[in-house]
Amino acid sequence: MGYMGRILKVNLSDETVKVEKTNMDIARKYLGGKGYAVRLLYDYLQSYKEMGLSPGDIDPLGEENVLIFATGPATGVAGFPESGRYHVMALRSPLTGSIASANSGGRWGPFLKFAGFDAIVVEGKSDEPVYLEVTDGTAEIRFAGDLWGKNVFDTDRILRKKVGRRCSVACIGPAGENQVLFACIMNDEHRAAGRTGVGAVMGSKKLKAIVVGGDERPQPAKPDEFDEVSKEAMNKIKTNPVTGEGLPKYGTAILVNIINNAGILPFRNWQTGVNPDADKISGETLSEKYLIKNLSCWGCAIGCGRVTAVKQGCFQITYSEGPEYESIWALGNATGVTELDAIVKANHLCDELGLDTISMGSTIACAMELREKGYIPDEVLEGLDLRFGNAVAMVEAVWRTAYKAGFGKYLALGSKRLAEIFGAPDLSMSVKGLEMPAYDPRGAKGIGLTYATANRGGCHVTGYTISPEILGIPEKIDPLTIEGKAQWVKTFQDFTCVVNSTVNCLFSTFALGVEDYAKLLSAVTGWDLSAEELMKIGERIYNLERLIVNEFGFDGKDDTLPRRLLQEPMPEGVAKGQVVELEKMKEEYYKLRGWVDGRPTEEKLKELEIL
Hints:
With 611 residues, the chain is an alpha+beta fold. It is built from 25 helices and 19 strands. The protein is globular and about 60 Å long.
């Protein structure tokens, strides 16, 4: 029925490993993936409070933080479209101080299911470097002293050879070991659970890697029904212009020119939304000059991944993957760098060292504006010439950050702390401490409300309203109006929770709607799931996650945007003169949510069967 029925619980403090049954009552209410992990984290938080430990006393890099790797009922099920993902969550993010949440593709998620488990829960912390080997229903904690200090690529290759069977590796690089606050967890070398610093949490536990593999396979509860709805869904994906044509041909970077033409491609730390040289770093240019071939995650019919190479020059790389749209924007457009070979190199280094490209590029861009406006003295930079458009300095800043070398020790803190340290907090383009991605909401008001109300912080994949506002999917709406945006945002956020708990690639939603998911999940799980029930599950997950966020002191005052977006009109382009009228949208959004000042009411929590 899509589940393996077992959860692995590992305590690194006392070196114990035990297997528990997947709680099917929780699965029925929260599906899996993000939803199941959120429920577990909430239960941990309550147990800590009963022990007298307040949420604010939980150190994100301490023993009390819990790290969860979770799959969903779709993960690893052959024929379920785009089902090669897994979700990572921690009780507290070292970057934001709130809940940590990240998602990744590749093949690690399915291989965890093949090893016989739906999730891995990691408690405590080890005194020495270790890795976890999970194969064929068993798990062992192994010494990793020889791996500590190695980069992601070497760690992956060494462990696959050591295990000696078909397997997948999720690991941290030097950035995670050094507890850079936005370090990520990498799997299959180039795939990243990128946001909120989950790699730093893993590093604080001295957990270098988790290797998974096995011969078990998840099966649908109703195979004949599943075959029928699966073929229908696959056909929709293959014939959709985005999933069947645009993404396979140009990858996610096809968005560079689209978003720039809409006047919302943040340039030079969001000082404007237009880059006259954007085509130099576009998906079209990447395909023309650097693409070797396409690449797919496990079970993917889209194949948006890029295998690339820089054949000559100072940024030469013989093999790499990416960069994706967000990485091109953050490392390129946000920093003013238009040399695409440098962006490919910087992205490669982020993968090799284990860094979130969005936070990395945004933090460099913040530092560049701080320096430009005189907040950072040259002597503090220790020779790092952080000027907008300086490709060499941008690339150098990446490795300095991973090792906290020189000025890298400041960059490793993220843009919020960086800007505060140097006296200009408004120059951090972040929400709740998490750097925002590549869409300026002054020209797409719905995504502004999404950023502000996203539980984990500045996040577009919490509810991708760029789809209707710019791409016209499932219908075209006016990006510059605030009318109706609250309902769009709530709907997208709830549906996204369903997808991240299934666990599936969000790109599937360009072609598939909630009705399609209801059919697929009903056939896989054997439950009779309607579209309405799925949306209620998504709403339940979002509200429970918000309840945890509230426990850490975040509420309506934190559901906001950087001052620049609220008060500084867009200086040029299609959105010239626009700001984000956030408060009007937020008031309507809270009413729709059943929240007061960013907090779910008791009535709403009871309605959703959370309390």
